[in-house]
Design a protein that fits this description.
seven-stranded mixed β-sheet
Length: 217
Amino acid sequence: MATTVLIPVNRLDRAKGRLAALLAPEERAELVRRSLGTVLEAVQGAGLEAVVLTSDAGVRAALSAGVRALAEEPELRGLSAQLERAAERLDVDELLILHADLPLATAEALRDLVAQAPPAPSVTLVRPGDGGTNAMLLRPPGRFPLAYGKGSGDLHEASAREAGLTVRRAEGKVLALDLDTPADVRTLLAEPAGRACEAGRYLLGIGVEGREALGEG
């Protein structure tokens, strides 16, 4: 059975608040759409099953064939609670939680992540520079509480070890870059691959390099 990939997507009208000084609301929403498209293409190219978790009806309506959508449950608060409930609903033995804002994601990177994962019970993580959790392969899910937010990488690793799971940090930089801050955008546009990716082309096309806020934060 293929690995199920759960991709949470915030409401587009709330997307990427830390980029507000750099991008207008519709620009932030479009950046999310394009990054999500890249991630979904990578998931499907790797032969994995994509499930998008969102409360945004527009996001759900725009998903292509073969991508399953799950609506968030309104009584729950916080990303971790939503993901835990979604994992329960999916009821799978192997779940990859993957952020939607990974502009360099490729099928090869996802296949490599799965290949690096130890046998169950285990957790395999990709961590960005800020200590978060961009990708987390759970074999199986549900063995420890999720703790998305500041410092989630350390929290997830500690909880997994306490629960008796083998923990591995996956090698490879492709999945380590997300787009949360102007500094992330600078990093993306500093490399040819970043400028050539879908998100990079969009940002260049709207003239982001000429904006004063790109040098801040």
